[in-house]
Amino acid sequence: MKPRIAISAPMSVPMEHLSEVEDLLNVKYEIPYGHISFWDRKSAYDQNQFNRADAVVVILNDFDYDSSKSDYFIPIGVHRELQEANKQRKKVFLAYKRKSDGVLNLYIATYILGNGDDYKRTSIKGNAGSSDMFKVWLKSLESKESEVDDSMKSLGIDAQAELEKAAIKLMTNSIYGSVVSCNTDPVDEQVKLPMARRVYASLIPNPDYSDERLLLML
Question: With a threshold of 0.85, does the pTM exceed it?
């Protein structure tokens, strides 16, 4: 499974640059667009999208390589995302475009964090010679997944079957109810229901759902 990537950039960075990095991730590294997230500056900021990411790609003004050599500070928004990335132990990369030939690449980033909201002490730069490290990181993820699959197979375990069993077990043993359509797979999205409503729903037809949907009391 491909990792999820969050793109972080100051408001001063044009949205076209974020789209350029998004295309690089998709075309060069085959990361699905659905696995790439960034704030579109129009809708509300979604912290959950950032939290789900496995790595963060930072873009500086003009695709710079070192924020400490620029005449601007890392803004507080990027500062806070770097704090979260550090707390959540995410990989952090920097998108840098070479001035000589305009080639865009991703580099392992080194960053220093200011304490609390002291964003003026935060800085980030790319590591020279690390332009292949994003690809290496992807390979390491694939290797770990392959090792897990091989280990399960050696024990005679079907990974997909086990996932399906786990999902069904969660549905039947959790404190959640599940709304299941007659036309869909039984393993569906869970809906949290108060206990009284679940008991009521198991005995009396629920007016909140159409006749073709079944409410299972778990």
Answer: no
